[in-house]
Design goal:
This protein has about 240 residues and is an alpha+beta fold. It has helices at about 40-70, 80-95, 110-115, 120-135, 160-170, 205-230, and strands spanning about 15-20, 20-25, 100-105, 140-145, 150-155, 175-180, 185, 190-195. α3 runs antiparallel to α4 (about 120-135).
């Protein structure tokens, strides 16, 4: 409503039904204090049904779009969506000259969890590790499952110092322990590789290649450290 319009004290309202549920509510207003007649109410009820159908279709479309870009196991974005967002970040950075980071991450010794406790426990561990990782990110950052237990993070509009602070937060979860059924499992730590725009590359392929190389190097160093430490137990 606009201007000096007033609401009629008797405002007809109609539900927008879909099956056994209700998608919304329609209400009629008038700019003058006049009552609504039977024809007005009949019109409202007639309009409510197709409007409910349109709302239901829109919601289903939105849900399908969400499913199309989301990894069902971890809740992170899928690889295609993550790479698309990385490409957008490159284009944005080229326009604004604002640096950002691409981070590749891989869970250390995750195979040991699957081998010892089975894939059902492994799936829960993966979900929990990703959930904590997601909690460390800002709303504008993107977390995508790149494949297996490897993930891509696009850290938007961030300096190297800000990225270093994020990495410290991520590493704080390395001693977290979760309970799955009767199993207590220490969450695996992440091996990380960072590529900064524009120092390490200006395009998707270059940034992913640099970040991936650094991540695998970190993973090899972590494995060597574990061997030197004589295999500290991962779970109990």
């Amino acid at each position: 409503m606009t201007g000096n319009a007033t609401l009629d004290p008797a405002i007809p309202i109609a539900a927008c039904p879909v099956g056994a549920g209700i998608e919304g509510v329609l209400a009629l207003y008038r700019p003058s204090p006049q009552t609504f007649g039977p024809q007005d109410i009949a019109y409202l009820e007639a309009v409510a049904v197709p409007v409910a159908g349109m709302i239901a279709v829109w919601r289903m479309h939105a849900k399908l779009q969400e499913l199309a870009r989301t990894d069902s196991l971890t809740g992170a974005a899928n690889r295609g969506y993550g790479l698309a967002r990385l490409e957008e970040a490159c284009a944005h950075a080229a326009r604004t000259n604002q640096p950002f980071a691409a981070i590749m991450l891989d869970l250390d010794r995750f195979k040991e969890v699957n081998d010892r406790f089975g894939h059902q426990v492994g799936d829960r561990v993966l979900h929990e590790a990703v959930s904590r990782l997601h909690g460390d990110l800002r709303t504008e950052d993107v977390l995508a499952r790149y494949g297996g237990d490897e993930f891509l993070v696009v850290v938007a509009d961030a300096t190297a110092r800000q990225v270093a602070h994020l990495l410290r937060r991520i590493r704080m979860h390395r001693d977290d322990v979760i309970t799955v059924g009767e199993c207590k499992v220490q969450l695996p730590s992440w091996s990380l590789g960072v590529a900064m725009w524009p120092e390490d590359g200006r395009g998707v392929d270059a940034l992913v290649r640099v970040a991936d190389t650094r991540m695998y190097r970190a993973k090899q160093e972590s494995a060597a450290h574990q061997r030197r430490a004589s295999g500290t137990p991962l779970a109990s």
